[in-house]
Write a structure and sequence with these properties.
The chain is an alpha/beta fold and 268 residues long. It is 35% helix and 25% strand. The radius of gyration is 19 Å and the shape is globular. The N and C termini lie far apart (40 Å). The chain binds adenosine-5'-diphosphate and magnesium ion. It is a peripheral membrane protein.
Amino acid sequence: MTATIPQVAPAASVADRPMVEAVEVHKRFGNLEVLKGITMSVERGQVVCLLGPSGSGKSTFLRCINHLEQIDAGMIRVAGETVGYREKNGRLHELREREVAAQRRKVGMVFQRFNLFPHMTALENVIEAPTQVAGRSKADAKAQARRLLAQVGLADKADTYPAQLSGGQQQRVAIARALAMEPEVMLFDEPTSALDPELVGDVLDVMRGLAESGMTMIVVTHEIGFAREVGDVAVFMDGGVVVEAGDPTQVLVDPREERTRAFLSKVL
Ligand code: ADP
Ligand code: MG
């Protein structure tokens, strides 16, 4: 299927642009339309929490931001650049694989399953992409990795293998690993859903610290407390559309839409 790409207005200065802009994003898998026109804007330093029932398209939307999925229509920009395309003379040209990879580095992603390399220590996991992909020197990457492991509360686990770490510790290594590429925005896809309840708090604390440091974040989570305390905006999605979005306390405590209310009564 060929994508329908809207004509673009001349770019404002990158710094004036939202960090992530999605306009009327459509995505289908065969006959199944999973995203039915998602429009969303995330300002620099903002934390947007995305909630919605299983199958509503949350993960697919995050994957589109990272160009892990190609959208069928609409537009996504990250840090002022159109995802998957280059603007030239008011027209869009598809990027080559290497250019897509460069664009993807602006976006850090943390999944429900941490997927650390099992044969590498925590430190080796964190330095892998900086040394192998970004071409940074091993000494630099190691110094940075030690700082990041300290930031996620794992300064003493640098030489530990994933199997010797709890799920929560592994997830914090995964966060440090994503941060090592110095992304402009971090995407979290249900980062605490696979964890034992007593391990969730430490991971949320790391995410809270990251938010306080000014990182732009989109967080798919059903942790209502986190969304209310840390989120600047809560977005409720269902069936591939944004049902409602706004102040987290309003959306999560006093939703306008019946669909939001019904969902919340199930997760709370
Ligand atoms: P959520 O993260 O909100 O649970 P997803 O984005 O994972 O939802 O999935 C939305 C819908 O898209 C689901 O019906 C899912 O089965 C379908 N889907 C996701 N990825 C694919 C794929 N690669 N191929 C076919 N269908 C998919
Ligand atoms: Mg999902």
